[in-house]
Design brief:
Radius of gyration: 21 Å
Strand content: under 5%
Helix content: over 70%
Order of helices and strands: HHH
Largest sheet: none
């Protein structure tokens, strides 16, 4: 979703401030999904490790899951944080364009 939001800015720059607001909304939705996914991975990893801790193969299961789940958790969390930053900057750009172009339908001058 954040790819679609950034492509609105890149491809349709003549949309004015509305394109930045659309990008901010899509980035916020995408950030929520990524952070929820990160929390779900953490919950699943902890649940599996705790479930197998009483079994003799608990350490083997934790050693097998850690190289898979920990990078996924880190990448998903970083993606969520970067999408929040993108949404903040899009909101700032939207408000800056609203002050320069008072009408939301006004388009910036062609270069």
């Amino acid at each position: 979703m954040s790819i679609i939001g950034t492509s609105i800015i890149l491809c349709c720059a003549s949309n004015g401030a509305g394109g930045y607001m659309a990008c901010a909304v899509l980035s916020i939705i995408s950030a929520v999904i990524h952070l929820f996914g990160c929390a779900l991975y953490v919950w699943y990893y902890v649940t599996v490790v705790v479930a197998f801790s009483g079994v003799g193969v608990g350490a083997a299961v934790a050693a097998w899951l850690a190289p898979i789940f920990i990078p996924i958790m880190i990448i998903t969390g970083v993606a969520g944080v970067l999408e929040i930053i993108l949404a903040v900057y899009c909101c700032k750009a939207h408000s800056a364009l609203q002050t320069v172009l008072p009408h939301s339908q006004a388009k910036p001058p062609a270069a």
